[in-house]
Amino acid sequence: MANPSLAKVNAECPHCGFKQKEYVAAKSSICRQCGRSFSPFAPKPDLKLRTREEAPPPERHSIFGRFEDFWKRQRSSIIECFECNRKQQVCGAATSTICPGCSAHIDLRDYKITSGFSRSIRTRGNVHLTGKGDLGSSSVVCRSALVEGRLRGNLHCDDTVTIHCSGKILGRISARHIIIDRKADIHCFCRVRAQSIEIKGRMSGEIIAQMVTVQKKASLQGDVTAKAITVEKGGMFSGQLVIGQISITQGELLEDQEPAGTNILESHFPGAAPRPLPAT
Prior knowledge:
This protein has helices at 63-74, 250-253, and strands at residues 8-12, 19-23, 29-30, 37-38, 76-80, 87-91, 96-98, 105-107, 111-113, 116-117, 121-122, 126-129, 134-135, 140-142, 144-147, 150-151, 155-163, 166-169, 173-180, 185-188, 192-199, 202-204, 207-214, 219-221, 224-231, 236-238, 241-243, 264-265, 275-276. The chain has 280 residues and is mainly beta.
């Protein structure tokens, strides 16, 4: 096999431009035309080598993350002022705004609670109480809430409350729609108000709503005042029931809240004495 260092290639003299054959491994040579010494494969002195600056690597975002950010920027929603109830349209990426009617500040942030938290919250965003969270605020007002941890305060949502935990709930809950998840097993010590309540797990407490649904394998124990109630096959309901014309307005959902922490339900049924909830 031929030695690659013995191969010859064309080399150009940088002084006179004469071209001649030189070995690949040659470090220097003599021009056969002008007799001057030169390095056959050295860069020409009048040429400047440019080094391209390496750009910093772009930040990597998942496709889902980029789509979520884009959708949030494009989405808009209608919110209502806490003070004067004036409605306005805001961008989905906004974290706060000012009411054009009364100049009141409106919080639009989402809150994720992962530990003990006792400050009041009033936002048009969402609240997520994680499994390790402990919410002891006297008042929490938000758009929607997901409850997976311990709730000891009062909670009001303009839209939906989803409960995915087990244990005692000492505060009051009011919302447009309440969902008790399949794995939930809760004991509410204060009255629960909603336009509709969907029970997929286990719940005990006093309910005032327009529509109550107890799904298959779910159970509800307590006093219920509702316009209609549905107990699916395999579901269970035990307690006092009053069916009638129930009209719950937003003002009634936000009425002055009773102190949390009582362990006796105050029944609103005529002639019914207060009774304690089942011990846990």
